[in-house]
Amino acid sequence: MPKITIVGAGNVGSQAAFYAALRKLGDIVLIDIVEDLAAGKALDILESMPVAQSDVTIRGGSDYRMTRDSDIIAITAGMPRKPGMSRDDLIETNAQIMRAIISEVVRSSPRSILIIISNPLDTMTALAYRLSGFPKNRVIGMAGILDSARFRTFVALELGVPVSEIEAMVLGGHGDLMVPLISYCRVSGRPITSVLPSETIDAIVERVRGGGGEIVNLLKTGGAFFAPGVSTVEMIESILQDQKKILPCSTLLEGEYGFHDVFAGVPVTLGKNGVEEIRELELSPGEREAFAQSVESIRKSLI
């Protein structure tokens, strides 16, 4: 049975643990600096497994020795956003948290694949890569799946069609300059530009870019967690089951899309080795320019 560690027993981490358990992806360890929080949530999830007819085990605590020899470590820990905060406002605090976590997980699970969910996403993924010393295929940021899901949701709401009829992908950084690809958005196989006017598409794009902030402003005391949790588990599932799904993730670019030495969201093939291939899409001139702006914004936030 594969072993999955989720660092951070807050809303995102506990939801990811729950979804992974429901899908029977492996035995799960939930780690948090607050030991009883991780233990309590793990026990609650474990007690739901008879109803879910799942025999996976879930344990929680603060001792990283519990995580030894994990196959995947998903890191959700960090200070959440509050209303009025950008993701970049979290850099210094969450960087300190990331440094402490990486030293522990590298010691306990040197062959693991790291999935980073902590914000600011691309900056934290780059930091985890540098600190861990892992090869680039084993350090991956989760953002594009979430942003693409929001894109599909808003298009489906606008048109009143099932989300299963919507194809969409978001590239670039997980922030205000993310790039929802209009040229690759389809509704029942038709280009979005053939079913919606440009002003409506522009409004949807802006809502996608501000999707996380919209939820933060509504909740007042934290950010989204259902959608980030299930997006994280889609990555875990594709890796553990070697599904080789093509998913937008933050990965190290070394010449792809014309950029070097920067983590940014692009389509990748996710399999048992982590990122197995970076897929290069043909972007429109406007999309190329927007992607370049997004990448440069990521560079400015590196630490």
Radius of gyration: 19 Å
Percentage of residues in DSSP E strands: 15-25%
> What value does the average pLDDT take?
96
Strand order of the largest sheet: 3-2-1-4-5-6
Could you please say which CATH topology of the largest domain applies here?
L-2-Hydroxyisocaproate Dehydrogenase, Chain A, domain 2
Tell me about the largest β-sheet: 6 strands, parallel
Which bin fits the share of residues in helices? 40-55%
CATH level 1 name of the largest domain:
Alpha Beta
* Low-confidence residue ranges: none
- The arrangement of helices and strands along the chain is EHEHEEHEHEHEEEEEHHHEEEH
Roughly how many Å apart are the termini? 37 Å
Tally the helices: what do you get? 9
For this structure, the quaternary state is single chain
Q: Quick one: CATH superfamily of the largest domain?
A: Lactate dehydrogenase/glycoside hydrolase, family 4, C-terminal
